[in-house]
Amino acid sequence: MTDRTPEDLFGHTNVTIIEPSKGWRSLDVKELWAYRELFWVLTLRDIKVRYKQTVLGFAWAVLQPVMMMVVFSIFFGRLAGMPSDGVPYPIFVYTGLLPWNFFSNAISNSGTSLVGSSHLVSKVYFPRLVIPLASIGSSIVDFVIAGAILLLLMLYYGLGWSLNLLLAPAFVAGVVLIALGVGIWLSALNVAFRDVRYVIPFMVQLWMFATPVVYSSSLVPEAWRWLFYLNSMAGFVDGFRSAFLGKPFEPQVLAISFAVALGVFLGGIAYFEKVERQFADVI
Amino acid sequence: MTDCAIRVEGLSKEYVLDAREKGYRTFREAVLDSVAASIRRLRAFGHEPPADQPFWALKDINFEVKPGEIVGIIGRNGAGKSTLLKILSRITAPTEGRVEIRGRVASLLEVGTGFHPELTGRENIYLNGAILGMSRTEIAEKFDEIVDFAEVEKFLDTPIKRYSSGMYARLAFAVAAHLEPDILIIDEVLAVGDAQFQKKCLNQMSAFTRSGRTVLFVSHNIGAIKQICGSCLYLKEGVVRMFGATGDVALQYSSERAQQSQLNSAYKLGADLELVNLHIATGNIESANSASFEIVLRALEETELFDLTVLIEGPAGERVAIIDCRTPSYPHPLDAGSCFVFRGNVETLPLVEGQYSLGLFYRARHSSAYVQGLADLMVSETPRTTRPLCYAAEHRGFIALQCSIEPVKKFAPFTYDKICSLPRTGLEI
Q1: B214-218 and B70-74: which strand pairing?
Q2: Measured between CA atoms, how close is A201 to chain B, in angstroms?
Q3: Closest Cα of chain A to B401: distance in Å?
Q4: ipTM associated with this complex
């Protein structure tokens, strides 16, 4: 029996070579694709578990953004009298909160995802990238629900839907890209430096004020615009506003946003792949 | 053309002890460390490079496994078994060497990896299956078999946080048992579940290899290894001590274990006393046999011995029994340089098979101490041919009670009064 090779037995050649890891490696896209089921299962798990044993269940996905909108409208819209480019302030702030909430949830979740799954990382093999990628899945569900509410709110406030909306998916893709990029960086760094866990909330807060969520980007002095838009989220939030409120787009700004997001994403993957094989030893 | 399922060549794995002991680092530590390290490097310029504390968990491991073999891996704790499995499962990267694996690998280093307490049994089967590398259709096909194997039909839609630990373990193993990789790597997972379930699992593994698949199996249970493994790899301190037929390797392993049953060198107990020898039954002792013991003490100065007790302790340091060596003639006066020998015999040593550790408590004029882990005591199973066979050692506690059991036969109508009125022997009616 032992004269037969595995190929005879199983009808396929599947040779794995295990060697010491050296320096930079490129991402094995084919392997990642082979683990797509694991990605789905982990995403579904997060979605199912998310509102387990809560009274309101998925209603939280609706309540959270709406409540934030109300609070922000009262403090920034009414009390502080923030200008809102001629749109009702609640709608104005909601169009900013929509991508921002997704972004902040996504990077918080994925930043701590690897360490949170240390039992998997130290016991099973799979491309580790699946974990931060899947951790963003449940935030996407909330994102879609919050987006649907925005469309309803716009009808309530008597604002029509414009053709610009057709471009919204492009901005969704952009926000997902930058969220993944930052999330991948943070998750890999968090394995070696647990400080990341404490840095994230602070970072999210600062980043929000650097992004035109509660204020309009027209308030930013012209001279500082270039710096302002190096923050991809600033460009994407503006893009969302233009798409939903039917305002003109600024192609240059958007080009910068996408380029920066892509750079962060690719850099994140490269760094992740470099340190991936040490995770089990360090985590 | 090679026909190996697994070929391991010159495999080594190094850990830097420092990093392992500290656990995770904070950014501040890393910065301070790197500053300190650069200063060290500057100072050491032109001298030997400063040595970190390297620790070779594995050193130059070579072996080959043919398709269809079940290979057992044995060794003491810390011999590198788990590290080897982690490298073969690609969880961690080796420092040197090369491994070639032909076929799809599934590794089971822990039962129930990724089980989520909030999800139901059904959901967890899919989750765990996917984590172990099964596709959704594969799981769906085997779903009923898995549920049958685990015996949890009634609780399929209950969150597993409400499961008993036995149910949890059964469900977890059931999923793993239905994996169909070409090569299965298993680490000490049979320790869960009851004896009957363990047997079921061992059968499943044997069946698995009949279809030409390969299994690597780590266990402390030499019995299980002997039962299912054709060959065996014995790791000792990170190197391959022996690789060959299971019988030979198991023999070598137990004889090496037994060699540690004596004190290696004299042990200084205190200012006035030294322990020269301590052992119970040189070599292996079978459960329930008699065992002789010996304690040799040397007085370093003139003293008097008030108490002397040999302690037999379990794997977690729990005290199982003591041998009280006080005699009516205590205390014993000892001259400087004189040796004192205690010899005795334990009539029956009713310990369940396993490894025990010997310690000592003594009280002399100027010192007293309680010392643990001076030597090992290996107790092996008494061969037993009658049915029923013994339960696995870990389920039987430490003491094997000698008891006689007389079954009550044929009773109708069954009343308690009737049993009480029976003579104490001869229940035949």
Answers
A1: parallel
A2: 17
A3: 39
A4: 0.79
